[in-house]
Amino acid sequence: MRGNVSRLLGEFDPELPLERASTIPSSWYTAPEVYQLERDVVFAQTWQIVGRRDQVAQPGQYLTADIAGEPILVIRGDDGTLRGFFNVCRHRAARLCTTECGTVTKLRCHYHGWTYDLRGQLRGVPEFDGVDNFRREENGLPPIAVAEWGPFVGVHLTPPRQPLADFIAPLRLWAENEQPFDGLKWYARKTYDLACNWKVYVDNYLDGGYHVNTVHPALADSLDYSHYQTTCRGYTVVQSAPTKPAPGDVGRTRTGRAAYWWLYPNFMINSYAGVMDTNWVLPLGVDRCRVIFDFYFAENLPDDFRQQSIAVAEQVQAEDIGVCEEVQRNLHSRSYTTGRFSVKRENGGYHFHQLLGRQLQAPTQAEFSSPI
Ligand code: FES
Ligand SMILES: [Fe+2]
């Protein structure tokens, strides 16, 4: 198993200049052992956005998430502190919270009723008298790092090498200087399950607008493609373009500067004037992923505008799902192993492959760094 992974990892060189580079090989999208390695190395060792701050604004509010098979719980304590835990009971590993979000006064496991306080300390252990060498204080919930940024909450499943604020630094500056989150409020969430590896979805997102004219004809009407720019910095890519007047729902809801922000490895923010949505790409297996969209709007925008805007996003998503699932099927073809990059358009996609290749190939995570 290990030898096979090493061989597959060795088939990609992340240090070539874009002009000479090829994509990661197709096996990285189809091999279960690469997926297993990504769970341990990528998803457990990067900051992961797991939800929204408004879900955990008040004491006792919690949110749950599944990060590449790892169940996570984030909860606001009575003291106002946000804490992260694995959503796994110390008794027999059942879940402590069984819904996407909610409010509790304590964490009570639904299986045998063990209870933990909001700081993760074990408090109630029914019918456990006479158990030798068992101390409640040693059976609390192990904490994980949690941090807040703008409207988002992030966690890090292993001790982080850097604070979230540093990991996202270029996006933080973009938010502060170009497109602030101020005045945007969460409105709706939609969830899509796709029959493709999570990286196929990310690749499609990061192709610098290369597929916009062919796959998204309605959206293309509103984007000034000739001024589409892609900027790669650290663990982020920002693609942006001016919008131009267009007919219909697209023209009404896609105005101002279009910006598509990506945070390694799996989080995206799409913004226009008064309109923002986030895409959170969650691996469900080597050939399946879930994409969760959260839609935000400026508070003064009317309901029909919001519905039109969501309909535009859903149309774009349907078009993207079609090509992503087709690509996943064809990545199994014996005719295909790697592809080349458009130097003019696809620097963002190569930046992603460089980050991923470097992280998977790094002998230790301390030696993993971003290309720029
Ligand atoms: S698994 Fe939680 S109380 Fe038994
Ligand atoms: Fe697309």
Quick recap of the structure?
The protein is an alpha+beta fold. It contains 10 helices and 17 strands.
CATH superfamily of the largest domain: Naphthalene 1,2-dioxygenase Alpha Subunit, Chain A, domain 1
Return the CATH topology of the largest domain.
Naphthalene 1,2-dioxygenase Alpha Subunit, Chain A, domain 1
- Mind telling me which CATH architecture of the largest domain this is? Alpha-Beta Complex
Tell me the distance between the termini: 32 Å
The gyration radius over C-alpha positions equals: 22 Å
Major sheet: 7 strands, antiparallel
Strand line-up across the major sheet: 1-10-9-4-3-2-5
Order of helices and strands: HHEEEEEEEEEEHHEHHHEEHEEEEHH
Spell out the blueprint of helices and strands:
Layout: H1 2-9, H2 32-43, E1 48-52, E2 61-67, E3 70-76, E4 82-86, E5 101-103, E6 107-108, E7 115-116, E8 122-124, E9 143-149, E10 152-156, H3 164-167, H4 169-177, E11 184-194, H5 198-205, H6 212-215, H7 217-220, E12 229-233, E13 236-242, H8 248-253, E14 257-263, E15 267-272, E16 275-285, E17 288-298, H9 303-330, H10 347-361
Summarize the structure in words.
The protein has 10 helices and 17 strands. The protein has 372 residues and is of the alpha+beta class. The chain folds into 2 domains: 109 residues, Rieske [2Fe-2S] iron-sulphur domain (Rieske Iron-sulfur Protein, 3-layer Sandwich), CATH 2.102.10; 171 residues, Naphthalene 1,2-dioxygenase Alpha Subunit, Chain A, domain 1 (Alpha-Beta Complex). It has a 7-stranded antiparallel sheet, with no helix packed on it. The chain has a 7-stranded antiparallel sheet with strand order 11-17-16-15-14-13-12. A hairpin with a 5-residue loop joins β3 and β4. The longest helix has 28 residues. It is globular, with a radius of gyration of 22 Å. The two termini are 32 Å apart. Bound molecules: FE2/S2 (inorganic) cluster and fe (ii) ion (FE2). The site of FE2/S2 (inorganic) cluster has 9 residues, from loops.
